[in-house]
Specification:
With 287 residues, this protein is of the alpha/beta class. The chain is 45% helix and 12% strand. The chain contains eleven helices and nine strands. The strands form two sheets. A six-stranded parallel sheet has the order 6-5-4-7-8-9, sandwiched between helices. Strands 1-2-3 form a three-stranded parallel sheet. α4 packs across α7, α5 (127-143) packs across α6 and α7 (190-200) packs across α8 (209-217). The longest helix is centred in the C-terminal third of the chain and has 19 residues, at 268-286. The radius of gyration is 20 Å and the shape is globular. It starts with 13 loop residues before the first helix and ends with a helix.
Amino acid sequence: MWVFNNAREGSITKAFIRNLLELRRSPKHTFVFGQSIPRSCHSLSFQALTLCLRQLAAVCVRDVESHQRLTASGIPAILSFDAAFTLSVSEQAKDLAKQLLKTLEIQPESAALISLRTFDSMYRHDNEQFQRQLVSLSRKFCQQGYQPVLLIQSQAYGADNDLAMAREIVQQVPKLKIFNPFAFTHQLPNWELVMGALAICRLIVAIRYHTSVLALASGRVPFNLYYSNKGKDLTKRLQIPGCSLEEFNPDIHLDAIAATSAINFDHEAIRQQVKKDFQNCYSRVIG
């Protein structure tokens, strides 16, 4: 998988060029699967990307907007869903998540799990405004008898490090808890532990795209609080509750979030479609 973010408007970054060069190493034996073309990739960078993609054995994307952009440029792209839909949650992961949550004095049946992220210059969102929204939401969860829990889903650098913002929010909402899978010693992959927590907690507010995907793949319906075309696509195509980050108002959307606890998601059809689409792309390579 390749992520085609191009962080500088009007120019092409070195990282973006390195990704394109990787694609050109053996194009007839290469395919792109389950990615999105972000809005930061446009003009000259998009032209360079499409030039490389035309040479590949297959191209499969996970959202309608990316599919439309590529097909309009003459690339016969396949529309599918994210590859993480092929993952499944185990009873072992659910049991371990329950044990670890209880060490933090969190009861899953009353927990409202909230993923978060910070936004760098590539996104137009205001971090301070977003933080205020999460503080307000967490306080309202407390008032309604839920235990708000911030999910740490990434500990990478920069905008992909969730922990710093989480700690700032906890300072303003002392009753808030942090569930950080990276802080525990266990034998499971962290994604599987996250799925286990998503499967057993009462409510899920998904800011990160893969919070929504992993929740859906475990049979749960999150409130999808999206900030990009890929997140919006999940809400529109799968008709799950959610709204854009700009539209989000905890006062207005709290009831819709609470209602998700009563909804299950049948993920089997999507899981099979993703497997079929992947095999289609792979067969073009070996063919």
